[in-house]
Model the fold of this input.
Amino acid sequence: MATQTTASCTGSTLLQPISDIINLPLDQVNFVACQLFALLMAVWFRLYLHPSKTSPFIRHVVATLLGFYLALFCFGWYSLHFLVQSGLSYGVMVFAGLERMHRYCFIVTMGYLIICQITRVYVFDYGMYSADFTGPMMVITQKITSMAFELHDGLTKREGQLTPNQKYLAISRMPSLLEYLSYNCNFMGILAGPTCSYNDYMAFIEGTCYEPRHQENANGKENGKYKQSEPSPKNDVISKLCTCALSLAVYLSLCKLLPVEHSIDDDFISSTPFHLQVVYLYLAMLALRPKYYFVWTLADAINNAAGFGFNGYNKDGSPRWDLISNLRILDIESATSFKSFLDNWNIQTSLWLKRVCYERCPINPTAATFMLSAMWHGVYPGYYLTFVTGIAMTMAARAVRNNIRPYFLVSDSHKRIYDVITWAATQVAISYTVVPFVLLAVGPSLKFYWSWYFCLHLLCLLVVLALPVKKRRREVKGQTYSLQKERQQDNQNEHNCTDNNCNQKDKTS
Done:
């Protein structure tokens, strides 16, 4: 096994002895070691390169150089793709016209990512489901495309054309090359993210992230103004590291006992009652999720340790460090709807999809968002099977919630019954949907769905055909358009009145 992992790893082989001892692939050992090193560097960065002691230029330089070092250690020369992708996109931002810059940048960035994914999967190591250089490129793609759209909003649109969230995210000047590289490739997020907005990152670098714009519920006031105290992330970092340790222990204990591949074993299918197959699938997916809990929570802890991620205060005065958190574990495991599960899973990616695609796509934004998500994840056929299934699940869940849920809101007991039923249905639906995402290939994925007789696909189709779906998005768009039209009319009336007054003054004079 050690020989195989060495051959498949493109980064440093310094930790090969540790890989042999713990019997884990070298690329995964390198990844965890680099993240732990980044955690230590984050504490040093917050204490010794604090904005009160160091200029933003120095903080940008150090964050970028440390990021490139970690990338080289993990991925070797493949990390040059990070620079090439960032450089091409920056060139598009600089030389393309502002009106179309965001579209060209999106095409170039996504196109380069897809080319790298195709090369890695179909040329080098099909089926290698471990740490690889396209993982960081996925996060960089989110950052570049988000920045392109935010630049377009800030430089080409008036405030009245933007939503409150778009106003907050809009960028009013072109970033320098150093700022751009620091945002894309800083050591805190180059390996596992999470994605953040450019304005939030710059506020962190410049030391303005603790100002009242983030403080919805402050821990106190002094002379009518918010106190400018800097909260400590120590408690949150320790809590998240404990979550990481627990998640890693659960994953290493259960992942080999409950493999998802066992659900398509011929003997298992023929000898196991269907209801037990359902239970096994849920347990197998439950055992798989802690891997993502570990990676994303550790990445969040690294950013918090550096002082990044402050999101105001709770009502009790305690600081919140969830500005760029990627998941809410309790909300995931207790989700009672398909949408609730997705809203709490990979949160920053969901926000990116919403801001870049869902809010801006004029035709069928739900399907377009799922397809973009599939393309962004990679080129394995299982990804597309998962997200096509996800479209049907989302539409069916929306129809059930709109038509059936109101009947269970008449009392608390009815509501609890509804929550229990929808929790079980959500967990089964998520597990059923995600199987191709884990199996990757078409053959095993279709074999699984055949063993279940495509039952949830057919059920979703029947629900969508039988129950009406409220078109909320179009209603909201119509209301927004009518409000904008009324404002334009009011502005026109005021303008006409002003013109009339000016004409009368001219005539009088």
